[in-house]
Design a protein that fits this description.
The complex is a heterodimer of chains A (125) and B (406).
Chain A (H helix, E strand, L loop, with lengths): L4 H8 L13 E8 L4 E9 L5 E9 L2 H14 L4 H5 L3 H8 L6 H21 L2
Antiparallel strand pairs in A: 1-2, 2-3
Chain B lengths: L6 E2 L10 H8 L17 H20 L7 E4 L2 H15 L6 E5 L4 H12 L3 E5 L9 H7 L4 E7 L11 H10 L3 E5 L18 E5 L10 E5 L27 H36 L5 E3 L10 E6 L4 H7 L3 E2 L1 E2 L1 E2 L6 E2 L1 H5 L4 H5 L1 E5 L6 H21 L1 H7 L13
Parallel strand pairs in B: 1-11, 3-4, 3-5, 5-6, 6-7
Antiparallel strand pairs in B: 2-8, 7-8, 9-10, 10-15, 12-15, 13-14
Helix pairs in contact in B: 1-7, 2-7, 3-4, 7-11
Chain lengths: 125, 406
Amino acid sequence: MAYGEKVLDHYENPRNVGSFENEGNIGTGMVGAPACGDVMKLQIKVSDEGVIEDAVFKTYGCGSAIASSSLLTEWVKGKTLDEAQAIKNTEIAEELALPPVKIHCSVLAEDAINAAIADYRQKNN
Amino acid sequence: MSEKKPIYLDYSATTPIDERVITEMLKYMGPESNFGNPASRSHCFGWVAEAAVETARKQVADLVGANPKEIIFTSGATESDNLAIKGIAHFNHKRGKHIVTCKTEHKAVLDSCRQLEREGYEVTYLDPMSNGLIDLKVLEGALRDDTTLVSIMHVNNEIGVIQDIEAIGKICRERKITFHVDGAQSAGKVDIDLENLPVDLMSFSAHKIYGPKGIGALYVQRKPRVRLEAQMHGGGHERGMRSGTLATHQIVGMGEAFRIAKEEMAVENERLLKLRNKLYDGVKDMEEVYINGDVDHRIAGNINISFNYVEGESLLMALKDLAISSGSACTSASLEPSYVLRALGRNDELAHSSIRFTMGRYTTEEEIDRTIKYVRTAVEKLRELSPLWDMYKAGIDLNSIEWAAH
């Protein structure tokens, strides 16, 4: 299928690929399932002030899934947890111009950041 | 298309028309050519066209060891499958309404069977073994007194495995059950001798072996005579089994393609096997690489490989310089991986990570060298990105994790 320019850019040059060691200031979200063809792992490093200092991802999935997670890591950096949580999948889908059959990729990205935030909050409660 | 065309490794999807075939076809198209209707009996335009059709019929028959009178021209293998399956089922509906086929068949067979189910027939869809081949015991166990038709493909389009149609045919003969074989992917790639094979009907396609699209044939055995109900009604062409003006140029093209295949098949298979082995040898040392389908009972030009922990669609995207196909159909909203690989019992990850490479007449060694390079780079890049690969490397069993299906 034909991909949009932004999807291709993120796919060819994914931003913030990597992993963090699992420490107290790290929140990890892993969503999706291999059986469904996509798994996203998103990690955030949170400062004492509750600001996301850094974010990394690894994604098993199609180009749109990779692009959605790559874009999201760019977006959440510098945001507070609440701000990051407010990011909606529709914004990701719009920014990447995802076709209807790929909307689920943006949904998965939203799930991933929410899961990472929840994980961080659980650890730091 | 982009300035530079990708390397074509999708010969099981279709093939280009051989230049020699095009030359023959052009003789039956333009105003200065032999463009007549083969059914015209009153002038030489018709006679010449009819002679050309009969020559082609013989060329098609010769490749598969049939009598020319047993070859019915159709619009392609899909129509042949429809005609064979519905034609036999309808003709024998008083004798029984049970059909046996396999889960890995082409959609033309599966959907014809689904249609018959809607008409009140019963269909058994056999599970193949994990290597893609039919377990003869399972087949025998599925046959009933009211079974009128068994339909099994000769060569699978996705995984390239070759079924033992002789053994399956023998079982059918013993029980007087009609046996149809979809030969779209086998003609010109595997020796076929219908005179001695216990096969009643066999579907063929021209465009899979360097002939034109839009033309195919159905072999209908004459001795003993196989009778079926026509699905296309009209002028009674093709002995009443398939009405419609014969497409002379297409038929001539199919004939020439089959003639060339007969002549060159042995040499071509040897060359393709070398290329296939070279391709596999070039990637097999990467970890977690699996061949889908039996390695030995397989046509020379097909290899279907799963690169575990890499998702098929992103792999296709990374391999944009290759024209290949993936077993993963993530483009559909359903995210269904290949039903063929699923039927082999491949787990979803492996089914999602599969790529089919099919080589053919114009594939060069240099292209395979480049393909190996592209594949290695792409798989390594995507594994770097893959959380599943990390988990595998960390020794985590993916099956031990409770995934939230979405």
